[in-house]
Amino acid sequence: MRKKVAIEKNLVNVQQYFKGHGYQVDMFDDTQLHRIEKVGDYDAIIVSGGNIDFLGIQDTSTEVPVVSAEGLSAEQIYSTVQNRRK
């Protein structure tokens, strides 16, 4: 299992939660999302919200979920990622 996520920089509480559960966390800001290499290496890409398809990331050929953190706690986001890993 990879246990690796990319998380938008402003989601510090989410970053800490995933690190506390053994995940490797790569941080990015909204201008860097399109620069993420090897998208398939991640269990999920977690963005703060808004239009999660603003850079076409959901159109990639991978099965990597893009999770919007909008309105969710760190625990809920973690649960979402865990459910999608199964």
What is the element string, with H for helices and E for strands?
EHEEEH
Structural class: alpha/beta
Mean of pLDDT: 82
CATH fold title: Rossmann fold
Q: What distance lies between the first and last C-alpha atoms, to the nearest angstrom?
A: 11 Å
InterPro entries: UPF0180 (IPR005370)
Pfam family, one: UPF0180
Structure description:
The protein has one domain: 3-Layer(aba) Sandwich (Rossmann fold). Strand 1, helix 1 (12-20) and strand 2 form a beta-alpha-beta unit. It has 2 helices and 4 strands; from the N terminus they run βαβββα. With 86 residues, it is of the alpha/beta class. Helix 1 (12-20) crosses helix 2 (74-85). Strands 2-1-3-4 form a 4-stranded parallel β-sheet, with helices on one face. It has helices at residues 12-20, 74-85, and strands at residues 4-8, 24-28, 44-47, 66-68. The longest helix is centred in the C-terminal third of the chain and has 12 residues, at 74-85.
Task: Please sum up the structure shown.
By secondary structure, the protein is α/β, with parallel strands linked by helices.
Write the layout of secondary structure elements.
Blueprint: E1 4-8, H1 12-20, E2 24-28, E3 44-47, E4 66-68, H2 74-85
Parallel strand pairs: 1-2, 1-3, 3-4
Helix pairs in contact: 1-2
Tag the structure with descriptive keywords:
4 strands; 2 helices; alpha/beta; UPF0180
